Amino acid sequence: MSNSTAKIGTVYLVGAGPGDADLLTVRAARLVMNARVLVHDGLVDPSILAMAPRGCRMVSVAKQRSRHTMKQQDINALLVREALAGNDVIRLKGGDPFVFGRGGEEAEDCFAAGVPVQVVPGISAAMGAAAAAMIPLTHRDSASIVSFVAGQCKGLTDQNWAGLAGVGRTLVIYMGVATAEAIAEKLMADGLAPDMPVAVIENAARPEMRVVRGALAGLGAVVADNRIKSPALIIIGEVAGRGDMMELKKVAEMAA
């Protein structure tokens, strides 16, 4: 078959959600169960990978702070190469591929190479973690604005976060474990009250999930003292204290 008539595969950017396989969308589950080539992040739960059929070729491109299995440009090239070879590729990402998932970068490189792309949204880490911890990101009495930021990125100290957190607002920070103390100092320097409630959710929607709470001024200590490790999400705002009350109420109702 000539190159002009060779089949080009499709790259599916699929959100795997926060961890629990039950939180996959129906379409995401169907794609995984029929995958021939599956490229996945390290945050994808093993129970989801186990759904792939026998014979599926899996490629891990797991990333950790300061240690990447594969650089992003190499991941992009891998997706393009597999698709141009005629393979449909399931690119499985934790959370949602277009929320701090670098899905946009991968899609751009695929389009530039003439490779078709389809995006399958997933429950984002913020939505999944908040729900699992029973923390409402919005509440008529507490918050009508929600902001998502990356706490571990280039030029953290140069970013202007003023106004993103405060009364009536919820700030959700991805990838903020390593910079938690600096984040707290930055927000307080911008005028946020030191006693603003914070919640740190580790391994959201998984059996080993932990939720620890405190005040903004002690955010660094909360992370250090509890030895919080990624994946973890930080929620800052009045709603961060609500989950605790709702959880206590649920426990009381179960005991009654």
UniProtKB/TrEMBL annotation:
Annotated keywords: Cobalamin biosynthesis, Methyltransferase, Porphyrin biosynthesis, S-adenosyl-L-methionine, Transferase
Molecular functions per Gene Ontology: uroporphyrin-III C-methyltransferase activity
Enzyme class: transferase
Pathway(s) it belongs to: Cofactor biosynthesis; adenosylcobalamin biosynthesis; precorrin-2 from uroporphyrinogen III: step 1/1; Porphyrin-containing compound metabolism; siroheme biosynthesis; precorrin-2 from uroporphyrinogen III: step 1/1
Ranges where the Tetrapyrrole methylase domain occurs: 10-217
Stretches assigned to coiled coil: none
Pfam families per record: TP_methylase
Superkingdom per UniProt: Bacteria
Gene Ontology biological process terms in this record: cobalamin biosynthetic process; methylation; siroheme biosynthetic process
Keyword Calcium (UniProt): no
Record EC number: 2.1.1.107
InterPro entries: 4pyrrol_Mease, 4pyrrol_Methylase_sf, 4pyrrole_Mease_sub1, 4pyrrole_Mease_sub2, CobA/CysG_C, Siro_Cobalamin_biosynth, Uropor_MeTrfase_CS
Record-linked SUPFAM superfamilies: Tetrapyrrole methylase
Sequence similarity: Belongs to the precorrin methyltransferase family.
Name used for this protein in its record: uroporphyrinogen-III C-methyltransferase
Organism from which the protein derives: Novosphingobium hassiacum
